[in-house]
Amino acid sequence: MNATDTKPIKVAVLDPVGFRGGQARALQLVAEAIYQGSRAEGMPAEVVLGYLETPSHQPDDFRELRQEIKQRPFVWKTLSTGEARRALTYAGVPLPEVLEQEYQVPDDGINQFYDCDFWLFISDWLLKPLLPIRSYALMVYDYIQRYEPNVLPAEANLTFLRAARRASGVLVTTKFTLMDALQYAGVALDRVHKVPMLAPDFSRDGVCRQKSEPSDYFIWTTNLAIHKNHVNAVKALRIYYEQLSGSLRCLLTGFNSNAILKGAYPHLEPVREMVVQSQALQDKVVAMGDLPDVRYRNLLANARFLWHPARIDNGSFCVVEAAFLGVPSLSSDYPAMREMDDFYKLGLSWCNPHNPAQMAEQLKRMEQEADARKNDLPDVADLEAKGVASAAVEYWKAVQACL
User: Fold this and answer.
1) pTM of the predicted model, to two decimals?
2) What's the CA gap between 155 and 311, in Å, rounded?
3) Maximum separation of any 2 CA atoms in the chain, in Å
């Protein structure tokens, strides 16, 4: 495809899972990057955003999406071997040597996104093989299951890995995940494409950097995922309050975070037991739940610091959001967060996610040094300069490489 072609490439950017929060933001950002990048290269693509239709979806989930990028809800449709054979034959697509027992296609109620030339899924969580009727690529943000064996059933994990191996390309945002794609998922080197991290412009929401007197709290934003390290984090909080005379309240936020202190899931039982035993935890740790973005950012803007105690992932943009608002962060020390710190120049403080006593000591240190740590934060202008526009061309080139 080049600038002289009359028919633009049509790219579908799809979320196969239907998560909200960070996943919804990633969906918008990737769609926007492809839209901008194709135009910067003189090859304006038509971009369609596809989101899984779920009860949790809200009309304003994609409120920042430009009008030129069309939205389509979809559901997954399962095809038998016979149905798959007919669909491929009608589409003029050569049949695979061996057909799977079942395939899935994203059903948008129109024509299963067949009008799009290319599909880019922003997750590898594909529970069944995709009908091989269009080229597709995957954005893979991490392979947590390599480090947290209980995250996925073995069968599901194998399906996800096969999806990556069959894809035209796999896009990653860190060297850490790139190596996992090669060594763990077994994707060929020439089909793995590293693209820049994409963070929203958090400065556009009308929330200003902290101007008031320092507050008496810090924020721990998390969710129910096992790798979020809840047990060690609460152990650290107990030491911080009971042994180190920590004075700051901990506001616990995030999707379904109300369930954490209650120990509502098996991996959280030790948390519930600690909370029952500790008056300090009951008094000082406040479960705020999943807050609207503006409410969360106002709380964050006035926090002394943000705490990110997860064990491992592809890096959490909560620390970038905090930096936009003038708030320093204490983060677990693992490779992806080091890459994020280096890319955005965040001046992060570090703790060991496997050592609750050391985590508690770092919490106490942040209580004492948070104001001074603000001097290490990047300027908003520097963060804005690393937004979608600066990364867009690289995303478009990655898509071209997969076509």
Assistant:
1) 0.90
2) 24
3) 71
- Cα separation, 138 vs 341, in Å, equals 25
Nearest CA-CA partner of 106 in 115, 93, 97: 115
Question: Residue 18 — pLDDT band, cuts 50, 70, 90?
Answer: confident
pLDDT of residue 211: 58
Q: What angle do CA 25, 30, 32 make, to 5 degrees?
A: 95
Q: Above 80 in pLDDT, residue 19?
A: no
Q: What was the pLDDT predicted at 57?
A: 72
Tell me the DSSP string of 187-230.
--GGGEEE-------GGGGSPPPP-S---SEEEEE--S-GGG-H
Distance CA 222, CA 254 (A): 5
Check residue 314 and report its DSSP letter. S
**Cα 51 to Cα 288: distance, rounded to the nearest angstrom:** 28
What is the pLDDT, as a whole number, of residue 3? 45
Question: What percentage of the chain reaches a pLDDT higher than 70?
Answer: 95
Q: Where are the alpha helices (DSSP H) in 269-353?
A: 269-277, 279-284, 293-301, 318-324, 335-344
Q: Which domains does the chain have, with CATH numbers?
A: 10-198+387-402 (3.40.50.2000), 202-384 (3.40.50.2000)
Tokens, residue 106: 């994203």
Q: How far is Cα of residue 23 from the mean position of the Cα atoms in its chain? A: 5
CB 144 within 8 A of CB 223: no
Query: For the residues 282-311, what does the mean pLDDT come to?
Result: 94
Angle at 9 between CA 196 and CA 117, to 5 degrees: 95
Half-sphere exposure of 40 (CA within 13 A, CB side): 16
φ/ψ bin of 229: left (φ > 0), alpha (ψ from -120 to 50), beta (otherwise):
left
